[in-house]
Amino acid sequence: MKMHATIRRERDRRRRMAARRAGFSLIELMVVIGLILLISGAALPSIITIFNAGAEAQAYNLLTAQLTAARALAIQKATYTAVHVQRADSASTDPNDDYLNHMTDTFYSAVMIYADPDEDDGDPNRYFELAEGFTPRKLPGAAAFGEIDAAAPGYKSLAQPSLEDFTTLSIIFSPNGSVVRNVGGADIVFLTTDVFDPPDPIFENDLTATPPTETKLWNHVLANDDGVGGFAGEPGTTAVVIFDFPTLRAVPMGTARANYLNQNARLVPVNIHTGQLFER
């Protein structure tokens, strides 16, 4: 009997020891959790960089495809075309609203064509409008394009809080397929409610529709801003940079933004003869 009791006690002792060995103490768990958090924190910047690089590469490919399509369309139609890039405007039905209060962090690009919006109205003026068969395409992730100012070489308008002028740009093709900065000596101008009825839905709310269209993609005031207080449009560009928009917007205005772009943005000039992008 005594032997059996001793065997049972020894068996119970071994089970208790095995149970203790199978688990973790509180200190051990805290150490493991701390190591996991440390490793995750160290890896997060690299993961973000990978995602940003992927979005910028996709944006590059998207712009390349649209430039190819715009150039082919210019040659086919014997007219000017453009690829226009602009930050999306959120829904608004009040024309007096300040567009800066409705901006989002999403950018779109689209193929545009130079045409007479209404050949029977007696108005000989021609404007850029969305090309038939093409739809605006959203830039991937937080990627954005910024304009290199050819007139005063460097980044354009980095002093604006929301970078609206820097990120609104067009690459223009002439009827022979070359990249130009203007159309017959004039800057690029898009359709607005003053010259187009009903309004182009990518620039204005179409309140004449049934039911009324309460959203617009781009703000025409910004698209046609000439930078000197008027709305005569602006010249096309022949070089852009690709960058992460939220990151640049968080950088203090001025020199700090230029330094950030110099170190982190992807400079992409446009070949004026073929319209293709190449890198430096």
Short key terms for the protein model shown above:
280 residues; alpha+beta
Tell me briefly what this model is:
This protein has 280 residues and is α+β, with helices and mostly antiparallel strands.
The 3D shape can be described as elongated
String of helices and strands: HHEEEEEEEHEHHE
Structural class: alpha+beta
Q: Count of helices?
A: 5
* Percentage beta strand: 15-25%
Explain what the structure shows.
- This protein has helices spanning 2-22, 26-77, 220-223, 245-250, 255-264, and strands at residues 81-89, 103-115, 127-130, 137-138, 143-147, 169-173, 179-180, 239-244, 266-269.
- With 280 residues, the chain is α+β, with helices and mostly antiparallel strands.
- It has one domain (2-269).
- The strands form two sheets. Strands 1, 2, 3, 4, 6 and 7 form a six-stranded antiparallel sheet that branches. Strands 5-8-9 form a three-stranded antiparallel sheet.
- A hairpin with a 5-residue loop joins strand 6 (169-173) and strand 7 (179-180).
- The longest helix is centred in the N-terminal third of the chain and has 52 residues, at 26-77.
- The model is unreliable at 92-101 and 194-198 (pLDDT under 50).
